[in-house]
Specification:
By secondary structure, the chain is mainly α. 70% of the residues lie in helices and 0% in strands. It has one domain. InterPro entries: DUF4126. Keywords: Membrane, Transmembrane, Transmembrane helix.
Length: 227
């Protein structure tokens, strides 16, 4: 596993009895899983490049990425995936397939980097944390694309696609190089998207919410006629 060298670089980590190797492995897996939610095959491609050129020892369940045929295949697959998402009508159809596929990929990635756990705990964490992170990112991405499709007829979807690719690459690289930073980046991204969603829901995006007019006061009763 890749983490002993990272832990050895920081001998004065707090909580010395804690298994920091496992925690860092989980951060790597969850970070890569979240990246799979934005672009399904990008984390596998980055992981393959890191294994071949960066001497990054991949998890045993992912040894298949540590080969040049796998790198070439993943590179072509990522290129096809990226091009397909730039087609306005095709990207919406791909989202229907990408949602369950990203959850499966996220689950497998997190499970691969948590092989030291008890099998039940390992797969529970993989499904909840890995699959959940990938599914949440895929859902947010698909929702953003649906909004741009509604308001621009799909003409602005290329902006969402470009942003997805960028985030997937950044998250994948951070997960391998700085796993803790990847989790921080992911939490910050979730917080930002959550705030934007609240602003959209409350009508505060660009202008304040129009207040409903106060009800008119009832007219006073007419004076009684003199007796």
């Amino acid at each position: 596993m890749p983490t002993p060298t990272l832990v050895a670089a920081f001998p004065s980590l707090p909580f010395p009895n804690m298994d920091w190797n496992l925690i860092i492995d989980l951060c790597i897996g969850i970070g890569l899983s979240a990246a799979a939610g934005f672009r399904l095959l990008v984390p596998f491609l980055v992981l393959s490049m890191a294994a071949l050129f960066g001497h990054f020892p991949v998890a045993p369940d992912l040894q298949w990425v540590d080969s040049f045929p796998a790198l070439l295949t993943l590179g072509v697959a990522v290129l096809v995936e990226v091009i397909a998402y730039f087609v306005p009508w095709l990207d919406t159809l791909l989202d229907l397939v990408a949602f369950p596929a990203s959850i499966i990929a996220g689950t497998l990635l997190t499970a691969a980097f948590s092989s030291g756990l008890d099998p039940f705990l390992r797969w529970s964490l993989a499904i909840l944390a890995g699959g959940g992170a990938a599914g949440a990112m895929r859902g947010l991405s698909g929702f953003s694309r649906q909004l741009t499709t509604i308001f621009t007829g799909g003409l602005a979807n290329f902006l969402i696609t470009s942003l997805e690719i960028l985030i997937a690459v950044v998250l994948s690289v951070l997960a391998i190089a700085l796993p803790g930073a990847a989790i921080g980046f992911l939490l910050g991204l979730l917080g930002l998207l959550g705030r934007l969603w609240l602003r959209v829901r409350t009508g505060l995006l660009g202008q304040p919410v129009a207040e409903s007019p106060a009800p008119a006061a009832a007219a006073p009763p007419p004076p009684s006629p003199p007796v």
